[in-house]
Design goal:
The chain has a five-stranded parallel β-sheet with strand order 2-1-3-4-5, sandwiched between helices. β4, α4 and β5 form a beta-alpha-beta unit. The longest helix has 11 residues. The relative contact order is 0.18. The model has no long low-confidence stretch (mean pLDDT 91). It is an alpha/beta fold. The protein contains five helices and five strands, in the order βαβαβαβαβα. It has one domain: Response regulator (Rossmann fold), CATH 3.40.50. Helices cover 42% and strands 20% of the residues.
Amino acid sequence: MKKPKILLIDDEELFRNAMEKTLRQEFEVVVAADGAKGLRLAEKIKPKLILLDILMPEIDGLEVLRRMKKNRKTKNIPVILLTNVDKDESVSEGISLGVRGYMVKADYTGEEILAKVKNFI
């Protein structure tokens, strides 16, 4: 059986590499180090779920989300926001844009994030 495809968009290389390794246990993982590449990949591969960092240079996670919601090819892909800050205004905006949830990176181990992702799919 083919593994469900997940797109991880995060500019932090150490986090991205660790999450990719953990998520590969259950999913096919495609990674993007910036928002522009993430947008292109979302449209191209149509993943089952996107894990999207909020704080990124150039195009931040919320702008990625806004653009995805305007694109008929990507508007229905479920998104979970990843953040370093709890109670962030960005999280509220993300929720208003229709994200499925959010996670504060420091609050979860890789295995806990994997378990949460499995629940979303």
